[in-house]
Predict the structure.
Amino acid sequence: MATIINMPRLSDTMEEGVVAKWLKNVGDKIEEGDILAEIETDKATMEFESFYEGTLLYIGIQEGETSPVDVLLAVIGEENEDISAIINASPETVKEETVKEETVAEVKKEESITKNTSASDSITIPEGVQVITMPRLSDTMTDGTVATWLKKVGDTVEEGVMLAEIETDKATMEFECFYEGTILYIGVQEGETAPVDSLLTIIGPAGTDVSAIVANGGASAPAEKSTSEKVEVQPAAAKTEEAKTVNSSNNSPSGRIFASPLAKKIASDKGINLADVNGSGENGRIIKKDVENYTPSSKAEEIKGSSVTSSESFIAINEEKSKEVKNSQMRKAIAKSLGNSKFTAPHFYLNVEVDMDNAMTSRKTINGIPDVKVSFNDMVVKACAMALKKHPQVNTSWTETNTIIHSHIHIGVAVAVADGLLVPVVKHTDQLSLTQIGATVRDLAGKARDKKIKVDEMQGSTFTVSNLGMFGIESFTSIINQPNSAILSVGAIIEKPVVKKGQIVVGNTMKLTLACDHRTVDGAVGAQFLQTLKTFIENPVTMLA
């Protein structure tokens, strides 16, 4: 029997999704656990997993298309099964079962609240206090595990900071705070699992007594209502309209503006003031479609129609503007790490220019072999691994009591990503061939850019390579990636006149800059390392052994 798969709700505020990429085609055999598609929510692009087996019979939303949640996404069933009735059914019919399930879940939730509030006196949540429950971060999530708390009781938090990393049935995701205040209580400790909608944490003014809320499991009811009052389940459409009416200005009493991270990014890119945008999300929260559908008000037309002097117009045109962009967790980590390195490690820099003619010829020959692809960066990484074996003093780490000389060689390769810089690590680089290094670097770089790289794939480097040659940069200096003792900066290959055998000819050269930590690497040691590295790169045949 065919199974209907609707656009899932992959985040707690998601109202629509974009199919970024289909990973399966109509006619493909599907097994439970296969990834069907990559879906962009208002927070991130996530893999959407199949929980059914069969044949993919129909795709209802094409790549790049946007659709509300619970709209027909795909159909899985038996090969050649007739699904015309499903495809031709109205959206309401297709959504019927989903709506029923959501209504039942809502009733259960309300019954739970009624039960909790009847167990004790009715509670009114103090002003400014926000009760945060375990969010539903995937369409099939019934409970979640707190992998890591990034904040603790007593910490002051702001809107946009990450509170915790929560493990769902699909992935471990960062959970963002949408309020300001102090963490007053944590209800689910690290490693513990709790059902969706159970008490996760409480945020509010410092010193607020929340013991009654905690004792009531996070449930609350206005004091004027009877605990035995019948619970009325409000239709989703009515709730949405109510939220729009109550929150039409998008401003909370404290003046904060609630918007999803993706909405904030789009607004920032388009120069839109979120205060002017009406939110259609939960509790009036601004989501992606609100920003995309926003059109400026008639203020500009009113100004144009009013009588202003030429000097006033000139002032408006030449107005100075600045904007503040919240630092991402990645940007903060980069700033802290590089700041510590720059201000604690005494850097010095060595430069050398390498003749790349032989390397260019060798690379062309190697890449002529079917199914083989090697980049100049792969050749540099391989040469570094071989040079480090000959100069182990460069393959070191500094501590206050010892210099650690590593016998293993793990080379980190800096990769630019949307939010900053990541350094995937090629483990045991000296034991890999050129083609193995190339394949490993491409795999790790792809994971880094897709935000799918694991933590252990970015740890343990003993040396780092940073290459900006692809951007046309001839030479530059890098900050050492601690606890490494050195980092190599690789520039572009430049065609220019060079002297060979007493004759001026056209040649190709590349500049390398080695940044060293003077606590572990002396000038002579760094210079000898660079000379060995230069020899390997200029004679690629030595790296093929």
Remarks:
- Residues 96-121, 221-254, 298-314 have pLDDT under 50 and may be disordered.
- Residues 168 and 378 are 37 Å apart (CA to CA).
